[in-house]
Hints:
The complex is a heterodimer. By secondary structure, chain A is mostly helical.
Amino acid sequence: MAERNCLVANDWICWDYVTSRSQELTDATLEHIWITGASVLIGIALSVPLALLARRGRRWAAPVLGLTTLLYTVPSLAMFSLLLPVFGLSATLVVTGLVLYSLTILVRNVLAGLEAVPAEVKEAARGMGYGSARLLWQVEMPLALPALLAGVRIATVSTVALTTVGSIVGKGGLGNLIAPAVNTSFKAQVLTASVLCVLLALVADLLLLGVQRVLTPWTRATGRPAASGKGA
Amino acid sequence: MGVLEGAWDWLTNGAHWSGESGVWHRLGEHVYVSGIALAIACAVALPVGLYLGHLGKGGALAVNISNIGRAVPVFAVLALFMVSPLRNSGYLPTIAALVLFAIPPLLTNAYVGMREVDRSVVEAARGMGMSGGQLFLRVELPLARPLVMTGLRSGAVQVIATATIAAMVGQGGLGRIITAGFNTYDTAQVVAGALLVAALALLVEGALIAADRLLPRAATSR
């Protein structure tokens, strides 16, 4: 009897699928990684000035926090659809949507970290002649780093999951493999891509945990999440 | 403003509200799917989370389960259900995916709510001779309620927003209005769909706040 072909039998777990489509899987995974990475990095770059703005007083805090929270309630499907007229079918569209979502978690965490800096520490630094820029970069930011990194971990893990929805515009990393496979009931492809996606999130989380340990050796606690993630 | 006006025109056109792919039908599907999913998720997550919080055990599990839940894309779970035999059982794939999505945050929130109750109050109640059951019902539960209700509200809003994903695999709900608009490059319709989802989420959040206001007497006067 001939060897049983799991691709023909449409099995859930199929090693033949993984080997024969390894190029496709690698490309999708790489796309997933760069979309997630770019989104989180841009999110961090935007969240720090936004948090600094929100810290200037209630006049700024209310619109910044209100707007980033409001963005979070927009369903991901609607977000990507609404950005379509602006960006067309491109990865920029997906990255923009993911950046907007990541801001909710990141701005809150940066702000919480900055506000948790003890007033005595700031007074002491000012007394030593620190200007506001030096105070920010050498005293406040390092002390706010644990909260920032805790936010980065949450944002990264939820962004990895949300990237799959980008498949609606054909730029969803591993989601691009899941969407067409649903129509053709290709079990191995759906399962493999889904498992890779979860693994990606877990690996990213572990890597960031390592970064957290290296950058902030004074905190052993992992920090409490300030906001919950968004479902994809 | 042009886009919002377009969405308003779309929404005020009666023809868009009737029929199989009309707003009423899609809204009904959306409410049905997210309502059932939320009810099942609450029935599973709240007792477990509250009980673990009462015992003070399983904290690592209760807190980490929401981290794990965050890593699993709803779209992937939904896709897995859609290629399994479940695909022929109506709305079940969406409901099952939403239940799995909602359980982790609800459970973590219930657990954290119970653990945030002032330990000295719990000790005082024990010292007064309250049994475990009395302590749970009369002290911990009323004090944990605000946090648990906040978790429930955000869970409900998240489930309603996430239920739109069902449209990506051809299941029903308001997401279908968004995907239909997307496929025909009809931005007004996409905005209208998003507004409908947002309105439903706000309405449910308001209803839960109102329900919360009506409930306290019953829980504390016993």
